[in-house]
Protein backbone atom coordinates (compact mmCIF):
# COMPACT_ATOMS: atom_id res chain seq x y z
CA UNK A 1 0.00 0.00 0.00
CA UNK A 2 2.66 2.55 1.05
CA UNK A 3 4.77 1.83 -2.00
CA UNK A 4 5.25 5.42 -3.03
CA UNK A 5 6.10 5.93 -6.70
CA UNK A 6 8.82 8.36 -7.92
CA UNK A 7 6.18 10.79 -9.27
CA UNK A 8 4.48 10.82 -5.89
CA UNK A 9 7.80 11.38 -4.12
CA UNK A 10 8.44 14.32 -6.43
CA UNK A 11 5.11 15.85 -5.44
CA UNK A 12 5.75 15.24 -1.72
CA UNK A 13 9.25 16.75 -1.79
CA UNK A 14 8.03 19.69 -3.86
CA UNK A 15 5.24 20.35 -1.37
CA UNK A 16 7.71 20.30 1.52
CA UNK A 17 10.08 22.60 -0.33
CA UNK A 18 7.33 25.06 -1.36
CA UNK A 19 5.84 25.17 2.15
CA UNK A 20 9.24 25.52 3.82
CA UNK A 21 10.36 28.38 1.59
CA UNK A 22 6.96 30.07 1.88
CA UNK A 23 7.09 29.87 5.70
CA UNK A 24 10.71 30.99 6.01
CA UNK A 25 10.18 34.02 3.78
CA UNK A 26 6.80 34.93 5.28
CA UNK A 27 7.90 34.67 8.93
CA UNK A 28 10.13 37.79 9.18
CA UNK A 29 7.57 39.79 7.22
CA UNK A 30 4.82 38.39 9.42
CA UNK A 31 6.71 39.32 12.60
CA UNK A 32 7.15 42.88 11.33
CA UNK A 33 3.50 43.23 10.36
CA UNK A 34 2.33 41.64 13.63
CA UNK A 35 4.48 44.07 15.62
CA UNK A 36 3.10 47.06 13.70
CA UNK A 37 -0.47 45.92 14.26
CA UNK A 38 0.12 45.10 17.93
CA UNK A 39 2.21 48.05 19.01
CA UNK A 40 1.74 50.97 16.65
CA UNK A 41 -1.10 53.18 15.61
CA UNK A 42 -0.86 54.53 12.10
CA UNK A 43 -3.07 55.89 9.39
CA UNK A 44 -4.70 53.08 7.38
CA UNK A 45 -4.16 50.42 10.05
CA UNK A 46 -7.69 49.05 9.65
CA UNK A 47 -7.08 48.76 5.91
CA UNK A 48 -3.80 46.86 6.37
CA UNK A 49 -5.53 44.61 8.89
CA UNK A 50 -8.32 43.82 6.40
CA UNK A 51 -5.89 43.31 3.52
CA UNK A 52 -3.95 40.66 5.45
CA UNK A 53 -7.08 38.68 6.23
CA UNK A 54 -8.45 38.97 2.70
CA UNK A 55 -6.90 35.70 1.41
CA UNK A 56 -8.73 33.90 4.20
CA UNK A 57 -12.16 34.98 2.96
CA UNK A 58 -11.67 35.46 -0.78
CA UNK A 59 -12.21 32.41 -3.00
CA UNK A 60 -8.66 31.00 -3.46
CA UNK A 61 -9.15 31.04 -7.22
CA UNK A 62 -9.60 34.81 -7.01
CA UNK A 63 -6.38 35.24 -5.04
CA UNK A 64 -4.61 32.98 -7.55
CA UNK A 65 -5.91 34.96 -10.48
CA UNK A 66 -4.89 38.26 -8.85
CA UNK A 67 -1.42 36.82 -8.35
CA UNK A 68 -1.34 35.83 -12.02
CA UNK A 69 -2.39 39.35 -13.04
CA UNK A 70 0.26 40.92 -10.80
CA UNK A 71 3.14 38.47 -10.92
CA UNK A 72 2.48 36.82 -14.29
CA UNK A 73 4.95 37.47 -17.13
CA UNK A 74 2.91 40.41 -18.36
CA UNK A 75 1.80 41.49 -14.89
CA UNK A 76 2.99 44.78 -13.43
CA UNK A 77 5.36 43.28 -10.88
CA UNK A 78 6.03 40.09 -12.81
CA UNK A 79 7.27 41.91 -15.93
CA UNK A 80 9.59 44.08 -13.84
CA UNK A 81 10.96 41.08 -11.93
CA UNK A 82 11.66 39.15 -15.12
CA UNK A 83 13.17 42.15 -17.02
CA UNK A 84 15.38 43.45 -14.22
CA UNK A 85 16.14 40.52 -11.95
CA UNK A 86 15.45 37.59 -14.26
CA UNK A 87 13.00 36.17 -11.74
CA UNK A 88 10.00 34.36 -13.21
CA UNK A 89 7.29 33.25 -10.81
CA UNK A 90 4.44 32.19 -13.10
CA UNK A 91 4.28 28.42 -13.67
CA UNK A 92 7.38 27.87 -11.52
CA UNK A 93 7.74 26.30 -8.09
CA UNK A 94 8.81 29.70 -6.73
CA UNK A 95 5.40 31.00 -7.80
CA UNK A 96 3.80 28.14 -5.89
CA UNK A 97 5.77 29.27 -2.83
CA UNK A 98 4.49 32.83 -3.34
CA UNK A 99 0.88 31.63 -3.63
CA UNK A 100 1.26 29.47 -0.51
CA UNK A 101 2.93 32.32 1.39
CA UNK A 102 0.11 34.74 0.58
CA UNK A 103 -2.61 32.22 1.39
CA UNK A 104 -1.05 31.20 4.70
CA UNK A 105 -0.09 34.73 5.75
CA UNK A 106 -3.23 35.47 7.83
CA UNK A 107 -2.80 32.23 9.77
CA UNK A 108 0.86 33.00 10.33
CA UNK A 109 0.36 36.59 11.48
CA UNK A 110 -2.52 36.10 13.89
CA UNK A 111 -0.81 34.04 16.64
CA UNK A 112 2.32 36.21 16.40
CA UNK A 113 0.26 39.35 16.81
CA UNK A 114 -1.66 37.93 19.78
CA UNK A 115 1.53 36.84 21.51
CA UNK A 116 3.19 40.23 20.98
CA UNK A 117 0.09 41.89 22.42
CA UNK A 118 0.38 39.58 25.43
CA UNK A 119 3.95 40.67 26.22
CA UNK A 120 3.89 42.87 29.32
CA UNK A 121 4.70 46.39 28.19
CA UNK A 122 6.03 47.15 31.65
CA UNK A 123 8.92 44.79 30.88
CA UNK A 124 9.60 46.78 27.71
CA UNK A 125 9.62 49.96 29.82
CA UNK A 126 12.06 48.36 32.26
CA UNK A 127 14.33 47.48 29.33
CA UNK A 128 14.20 51.09 28.11
CA UNK A 129 15.26 52.42 31.53
CA UNK A 130 18.21 50.01 31.35
CA UNK A 131 19.39 51.68 28.16
CA UNK A 132 17.81 49.53 25.42
CA UNK A 133 16.77 51.43 22.28
CA UNK A 134 13.35 50.40 20.88
CA UNK A 135 14.76 47.91 18.32
CA UNK A 136 16.89 46.25 21.00
CA UNK A 137 13.88 46.09 23.34
CA UNK A 138 12.12 44.23 20.53
CA UNK A 139 14.98 41.80 19.90
CA UNK A 140 15.89 41.10 23.54
CA UNK A 141 12.52 41.24 25.31
CA UNK A 142 9.45 41.32 23.06
CA UNK A 143 10.50 38.72 20.49
CA UNK A 144 11.87 36.11 22.92
CA UNK A 145 8.72 36.42 25.04
CA UNK A 146 6.51 36.15 21.94
CA UNK A 147 8.37 33.07 20.71
CA UNK A 148 5.55 30.58 21.43
CA UNK A 149 3.26 32.62 19.18
CA UNK A 150 5.91 32.89 16.48
CA UNK A 151 6.36 29.11 16.46
CA UNK A 152 2.61 28.51 16.51
CA UNK A 153 2.20 30.93 13.59
CA UNK A 154 4.98 29.23 11.65
CA UNK A 155 3.48 25.78 12.10
CA UNK A 156 -0.02 26.93 11.21
CA UNK A 157 1.32 28.76 8.16
CA UNK A 158 3.35 25.72 7.14
CA UNK A 159 0.37 23.40 7.49
CA UNK A 160 -1.77 25.76 5.44
CA UNK A 161 0.95 26.07 2.80
CA UNK A 162 1.28 22.29 2.49
CA UNK A 163 -2.44 22.00 1.84
CA UNK A 164 -2.89 25.04 -0.39
CA UNK A 165 -4.61 24.19 -3.65
CA UNK A 166 -6.87 26.78 -5.29
CA UNK A 167 -4.56 29.78 -5.55
CA UNK A 168 -1.57 27.62 -6.43
CA UNK A 169 -3.22 25.74 -9.29
CA UNK A 170 -4.65 29.00 -10.68
CA UNK A 171 -1.35 30.87 -10.53
CA UNK A 172 1.21 28.20 -11.46
CA UNK A 173 -0.95 25.38 -12.84
CA UNK A 174 -0.29 21.68 -12.21
CA UNK A 175 3.00 20.75 -13.84
CA UNK A 176 4.52 17.49 -12.55
CA UNK A 177 8.02 18.10 -11.21
CA UNK A 178 7.66 21.88 -11.23
CA UNK A 179 4.41 22.97 -9.62
CA UNK A 180 2.53 19.77 -8.86
CA UNK A 181 2.26 19.68 -5.07
CA UNK A 182 0.61 16.92 -3.03
CA UNK A 183 -2.77 18.63 -3.31
CA UNK A 184 -2.68 19.07 -7.08
CA UNK A 185 -1.27 15.54 -7.50
CA UNK A 186 -4.22 14.15 -5.51
CA UNK A 187 -6.57 16.22 -7.67
CA UNK A 188 -5.01 14.83 -10.87
CA UNK A 189 -5.06 11.25 -9.56
CA UNK A 190 -8.74 11.44 -8.64
CA UNK A 191 -9.47 12.48 -12.22
CA UNK A 192 -7.48 9.53 -13.58
CA UNK A 193 -9.01 6.04 -13.93
CA UNK A 194 -7.32 3.66 -11.42
CA UNK A 195 -5.76 6.63 -9.62
CA UNK A 196 -7.62 5.89 -6.38
CA UNK A 197 -4.89 3.90 -4.61
CA UNK A 198 -2.19 6.43 -5.42
CA UNK A 199 -4.49 9.26 -4.35
CA UNK A 200 -5.12 7.50 -1.05
CA UNK A 201 -1.39 7.09 -0.45
CA UNK A 202 -0.88 10.84 -0.86
CA UNK A 203 -3.89 11.51 1.37
CA UNK A 204 -2.21 9.44 4.11
CA UNK A 205 1.07 11.27 3.59
CA UNK A 206 -0.60 14.65 3.93
CA UNK A 207 -2.42 13.54 7.08
CA UNK A 208 0.93 12.38 8.47
CA UNK A 209 2.66 15.69 7.68
CA UNK A 210 -0.17 17.76 9.14
CA UNK A 211 -0.28 15.69 12.35
CA UNK A 212 3.51 15.85 12.78
CA UNK A 213 3.44 19.63 12.32
CA UNK A 214 0.72 20.06 14.94
CA UNK A 215 2.52 17.82 17.44
CA UNK A 216 5.74 19.74 16.88
CA UNK A 217 3.99 23.05 17.46
CA UNK A 218 2.46 21.73 20.68
CA UNK A 219 5.91 20.65 21.88
CA UNK A 220 7.53 24.00 21.01
CA UNK A 221 4.71 25.94 22.62
CA UNK A 222 4.96 23.96 25.85
CA UNK A 223 8.72 24.51 26.10
CA UNK A 224 8.40 28.19 25.30
CA UNK A 225 5.65 28.68 27.88
CA UNK A 226 7.94 27.25 30.53
CA UNK A 227 10.55 29.81 29.53
CA UNK A 228 7.97 32.56 29.72
CA UNK A 229 7.10 31.81 33.30
CA UNK A 230 10.71 31.96 34.26
CA UNK A 231 11.07 28.39 35.50
CA UNK B 1 21.53 67.84 41.33
CA UNK B 2 18.03 67.11 40.13
CA UNK B 3 15.94 70.00 38.92
CA UNK B 4 12.24 69.39 38.19
CA UNK B 5 9.67 71.94 37.12
CA UNK B 6 6.83 70.27 35.27
CA UNK B 7 3.08 70.11 34.78
CA UNK B 8 1.02 67.24 33.43
CA UNK B 9 -2.70 66.76 32.97
CA UNK B 10 -3.79 63.14 33.58
CA UNK B 11 -7.54 62.95 33.04
CA UNK B 12 -9.10 65.05 35.82
CA UNK B 13 -5.86 65.03 37.74
CA UNK B 14 -3.32 67.85 37.46
CA UNK B 15 0.25 67.21 38.50
CA UNK B 16 2.44 70.24 39.13
CA UNK B 17 5.84 69.89 40.70
CA UNK B 18 8.72 72.31 41.10
CA UNK B 19 11.71 71.33 43.22
CA UNK B 20 15.47 71.10 43.22
CA UNK B 21 17.11 68.33 45.15
CA UNK B 22 20.75 67.91 46.06
CA UNK B 23 20.20 65.25 48.66
CA UNK B 24 21.73 61.81 48.41
CA UNK B 25 18.30 60.27 48.82
CA UNK B 26 15.29 62.37 47.93
CA UNK B 27 12.21 60.88 49.53
CA UNK B 28 9.05 61.40 47.53
CA UNK B 29 6.31 61.08 50.12
CA UNK B 30 2.55 61.02 49.66
CA UNK B 31 -0.59 58.90 49.80
CA UNK B 32 -1.46 56.70 46.85
CA UNK B 33 -2.94 58.81 44.07
CA UNK B 34 -0.80 61.82 45.01
CA UNK B 35 1.07 61.59 41.71
CA UNK B 36 4.34 60.07 42.97
CA UNK B 37 4.67 57.40 40.29
CA UNK B 38 3.66 59.79 37.49
CA UNK B 39 6.33 62.19 38.70
CA UNK B 40 9.17 59.66 38.65
CA UNK B 41 7.93 58.21 35.34
CA UNK B 42 8.52 61.70 33.98
CA UNK B 43 11.99 61.85 35.50
CA UNK B 44 12.71 58.46 33.88
CA UNK B 45 11.40 59.75 30.55
CA UNK B 46 8.64 57.12 30.32
CA UNK B 47 6.00 59.88 30.43
CA UNK B 48 6.39 63.22 28.72
CA UNK B 49 5.32 66.32 30.68
CA UNK B 50 2.85 68.75 29.12
CA UNK B 51 5.16 71.63 29.93
CA UNK B 52 8.28 72.38 31.91
CA UNK B 53 11.83 71.19 32.29
CA UNK B 54 13.75 68.37 33.93
CA UNK B 55 17.52 68.53 34.32
CA UNK B 56 20.02 66.24 36.01
CA UNK B 57 23.48 67.53 36.94
CA UNK B 58 23.10 70.39 34.46
CA UNK B 59 22.06 68.12 31.60
CA UNK B 60 18.61 69.05 30.30
CA UNK B 61 16.46 65.94 29.83
CA UNK B 62 13.15 67.64 29.12
CA UNK B 63 12.48 71.12 27.87
CA UNK B 64 9.02 71.01 26.38
CA UNK B 65 9.04 74.64 25.18
CA UNK B 66 12.24 73.89 23.22
CA UNK B 67 10.83 70.59 21.92
CA UNK B 68 13.42 68.56 23.82
CA UNK B 69 12.58 65.13 25.25
CA UNK B 70 15.44 62.70 25.80
CA UNK B 71 14.03 59.14 25.50
CA UNK B 72 14.40 56.86 28.56
CA UNK B 73 17.10 54.69 27.00
CA UNK B 74 19.44 57.66 26.62
CA UNK B 75 18.93 59.10 30.12
CA UNK B 76 21.08 56.71 32.13
CA UNK B 77 18.53 56.82 34.93
CA UNK B 78 18.01 53.51 36.70
CA UNK B 79 14.53 52.50 37.83
CA UNK B 80 13.53 49.93 40.41
CA UNK B 81 9.84 49.19 40.04
CA UNK B 82 7.53 48.06 42.80
CA UNK B 83 6.94 44.81 40.91
CA UNK B 84 10.65 44.19 40.12
CA UNK B 85 9.95 43.53 36.40
CA UNK B 86 12.78 41.08 35.95
CA UNK B 87 12.94 39.53 32.49
CA UNK B 88 11.32 36.10 32.92
CA UNK B 89 13.20 34.48 30.02
CA UNK B 90 16.64 35.40 31.39
CA UNK B 91 18.37 33.98 34.45
CA UNK B 92 19.51 36.28 37.25
CA UNK B 93 23.01 36.57 35.79
CA UNK B 94 21.68 37.75 32.41
CA UNK B 95 19.19 40.09 34.09
CA UNK B 96 22.04 41.70 36.04
CA UNK B 97 24.14 42.04 32.91
CA UNK B 98 21.35 43.50 30.74
CA UNK B 99 21.96 47.20 31.43
CA UNK B 100 25.69 46.90 30.88
CA UNK B 101 25.12 45.21 27.50
CA UNK B 102 22.49 47.69 26.35
CA UNK B 103 24.65 50.69 27.30
CA UNK B 104 27.69 49.17 25.62
CA UNK B 105 29.74 49.40 28.84
CA UNK B 106 32.93 47.44 29.35
CA UNK B 107 32.68 44.41 31.61
CA UNK B 108 33.45 45.43 35.19
CA UNK B 109 33.90 42.26 37.27
CA UNK B 110 34.94 44.24 40.34
CA UNK B 111 31.74 46.27 40.38
CA UNK B 112 29.64 43.20 39.65
CA UNK B 113 31.25 41.35 42.52
CA UNK B 114 30.70 44.31 44.86
CA UNK B 115 27.03 44.65 43.94
CA UNK B 116 26.39 40.91 44.17
CA UNK B 117 27.99 40.87 47.63
CA UNK B 118 26.24 44.03 48.73
CA UNK B 119 22.86 42.54 47.86
CA UNK B 120 23.79 39.00 48.81
CA UNK B 121 22.50 37.47 45.56
CA UNK B 122 25.52 35.32 44.64
CA UNK B 123 23.58 32.10 45.21
CA UNK B 124 20.78 33.12 42.85
CA UNK B 125 22.77 33.77 39.67
CA UNK B 126 21.73 30.67 37.74
CA UNK B 127 18.05 30.84 38.67
CA UNK B 128 15.17 32.22 36.65
CA UNK B 129 13.01 34.98 38.20
CA UNK B 130 10.10 32.51 38.47
CA UNK B 131 12.09 30.56 41.07
CA UNK B 132 12.81 33.56 43.31
CA UNK B 133 10.93 34.85 46.35
CA UNK B 134 9.53 38.38 46.29
CA UNK B 135 12.39 39.73 48.40
CA UNK B 136 15.03 38.01 46.28
CA UNK B 137 13.43 39.36 43.12
CA UNK B 138 13.54 42.89 44.47
CA UNK B 139 17.21 42.55 45.46
CA UNK B 140 18.05 41.37 41.94
CA UNK B 141 16.11 44.36 40.56
CA UNK B 142 18.30 46.70 42.69
CA UNK B 143 21.38 44.99 41.35
CA UNK B 144 20.19 45.13 37.76
CA UNK B 145 19.55 48.88 38.00
CA UNK B 146 22.86 49.55 39.79
CA UNK B 147 24.94 47.62 37.27
CA UNK B 148 23.69 49.77 34.41
CA UNK B 149 25.77 52.49 36.15
CA UNK B 150 23.00 55.07 36.30
CA UNK B 151 23.52 58.74 37.14
CA UNK B 152 20.38 58.62 39.25
CA UNK B 153 18.41 55.74 40.69
CA UNK B 154 14.63 55.89 40.96
CA UNK B 155 12.94 53.53 43.42
CA UNK B 156 9.15 53.32 43.26
CA UNK B 157 7.92 51.82 46.52
CA UNK B 158 10.44 49.01 46.18
CA UNK B 159 9.18 47.44 49.41
CA UNK B 160 5.50 48.05 48.65
CA UNK B 161 4.75 44.53 47.43
CA UNK B 162 6.51 42.84 50.36
CA UNK B 163 5.21 41.79 53.78
CA UNK B 164 6.68 43.20 57.02
CA UNK B 165 9.25 40.42 57.45
CA UNK B 166 10.52 40.84 53.90
CA UNK B 167 10.69 44.60 54.38
CA UNK B 168 12.88 44.12 57.44
CA UNK B 169 15.01 41.76 55.35
CA UNK B 170 15.51 44.31 52.53
CA UNK B 171 15.81 47.59 54.41
CA UNK B 172 19.41 47.02 55.60
CA UNK B 173 20.43 46.40 51.98
CA UNK B 174 18.92 49.73 51.00
CA UNK B 175 20.81 51.54 53.75
CA UNK B 176 24.04 49.93 52.51
CA UNK B 177 23.12 50.83 48.97
CA UNK B 178 22.70 54.46 49.98
CA UNK B 179 25.96 54.57 51.90
CA UNK B 180 28.16 52.55 49.56
CA UNK B 181 26.88 52.82 45.99
CA UNK B 182 27.36 56.58 45.76
CA UNK B 183 24.46 57.07 43.35
CA UNK B 184 21.86 59.74 44.11
CA UNK B 185 18.38 58.29 44.53
CA UNK B 186 14.77 59.31 44.42
CA UNK B 187 12.87 57.05 46.77
CA UNK B 188 9.09 56.93 46.49
CA UNK B 189 7.08 55.77 49.47
CA UNK B 190 3.89 56.32 51.40
CA UNK B 191 5.58 54.98 54.54
CA UNK B 192 7.03 57.77 56.68
CA UNK B 193 9.03 55.34 58.85
CA UNK B 194 10.78 53.93 55.79
CA UNK B 195 11.71 57.40 54.57
CA UNK B 196 12.98 58.48 57.99
CA UNK B 197 15.50 55.65 57.79
CA UNK B 198 16.61 56.29 54.23
CA UNK B 199 15.94 59.78 52.95
CA UNK B 200 18.11 62.87 53.37
CA UNK B 201 15.56 65.21 51.83
CA UNK B 202 11.77 65.01 51.53
CA UNK B 203 9.40 66.16 48.82
CA UNK B 204 5.86 65.85 50.10
CA UNK B 205 3.21 65.42 47.45
CA UNK B 206 -0.54 65.75 47.93
CA UNK B 207 -3.21 65.81 45.24
CA UNK B 208 -0.67 66.46 42.50
CA UNK B 209 1.05 69.35 44.28
CA UNK B 210 4.11 69.72 46.49
CA UNK B 211 2.95 70.68 49.98
CA UNK B 212 6.26 70.52 51.83
CA UNK B 213 9.96 70.31 51.05
CA UNK B 214 12.94 69.97 53.35
CA UNK B 215 14.74 67.62 55.73
CA UNK B 216 13.19 64.45 57.13
CA UNK B 217 11.67 66.53 59.94
CA UNK B 218 8.88 67.62 57.55
CA UNK B 219 7.57 64.07 57.97
CA UNK B 220 6.80 64.80 61.62
CA UNK B 221 3.33 66.27 61.81
Description:
The complex is a heterodimer of chains A (231) and B (221). Chain A has 231 residues and is mainly alpha-helical. Chain A has one domain: MetI-like fold. Chain A contains eleven helices and no strands. Chain A has helices at residues 6-39, 45-57, 60-71, 76-85, 93-118, 121-129, 134-145, 147-163, 166-172, 182-191, 196-228. In chain A, α5 (93-118) packs antiparallel against α9. The radius of gyration of chain A is 20 Å and the shape is globular. The termini of chain A are far apart. The longest helix of chain B has 17 residues, at 164-180. Chain B has helices spanning 36-44, 92-102, 109-119, 134-147, 164-180, 192-198, and strands spanning 2-10, 13-21, 25-29, 51-56, 59-63, 68-69, 77-80, 152-156, 185-189, 201-206, 209-214. The model of chain B has no long low-confidence stretch (mean pLDDT 91). In chain B, the strands form two sheets. Chain B has a six-stranded mixed sheet with strand order 7-8-9-3-10-11, with helices on both faces. Chain B has a single domain, classed as Rossmann fold (3-Layer(aba) Sandwich), CATH 3.40.50. Chain B has six helices and eleven strands. Chain B is of the alpha/beta class. Classes of the chains: A mainly alpha (231), B alpha/beta (221). At the A-B interface, α6 and α7 of A face β7 and α2 of B.
Which descriptors would you attach to this protein?
heterodimer; A: about 230 residues; mainly alpha; 11 helices; globular; B: about 220 residues; alpha/beta; Rossmann fold; 6-stranded mixed beta sheet; 5-stranded antiparallel beta sheet; 6 helices
Quick summary:
With 231 residues, chain A is an all-alpha fold.
Question: Hey, which two chains have the biggest interface?
Answer: A-B, 24 and 30 residues
Beta-strand percent range of chain B:
25-35%
* Estimated share of beta-strand residues of chain A: under 5%
Q: What is the number of independent domains of chain B?
A: 1
Helix content range of chain B = 25-40%
H/E element sequence of chain A: HHHHHHHHHHH
- Give the overall silhouette of chain B: globular
How many domain modules of chain A?
1
Q: Which stretches of chain A are poorly predicted, pLDDT < 50 over at least 5 residues?
A: none
CATH architecture of chain B: 3-Layer(aba) Sandwich
Annotated CATH homologous superfamily of chain A: MetI-like
Number of strands of chain A: 0
Mean of pLDDT of chain A: 90
The number of E-state strands of chain B comes to: 11
Class by SSE composition of chain A? mainly alpha
Query: Cα-atom Rg of chain A, whole angstroms?
Result: 20 Å
Amino acid sequence: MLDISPTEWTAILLSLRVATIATLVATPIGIGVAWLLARRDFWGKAFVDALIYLPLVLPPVVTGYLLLLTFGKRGLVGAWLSDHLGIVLAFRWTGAALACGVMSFPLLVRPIRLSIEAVDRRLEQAAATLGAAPWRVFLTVTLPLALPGVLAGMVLGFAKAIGEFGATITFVSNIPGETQTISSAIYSLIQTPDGDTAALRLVLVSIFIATAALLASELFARRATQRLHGN
Amino acid sequence: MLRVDIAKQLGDFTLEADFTSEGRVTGLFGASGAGKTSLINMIAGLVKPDRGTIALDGEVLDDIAAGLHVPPYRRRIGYVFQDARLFPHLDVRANLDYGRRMNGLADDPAQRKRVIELLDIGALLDRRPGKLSGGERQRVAFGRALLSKPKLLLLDEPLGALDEDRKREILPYLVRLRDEAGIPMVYVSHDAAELRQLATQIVMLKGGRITAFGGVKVLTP
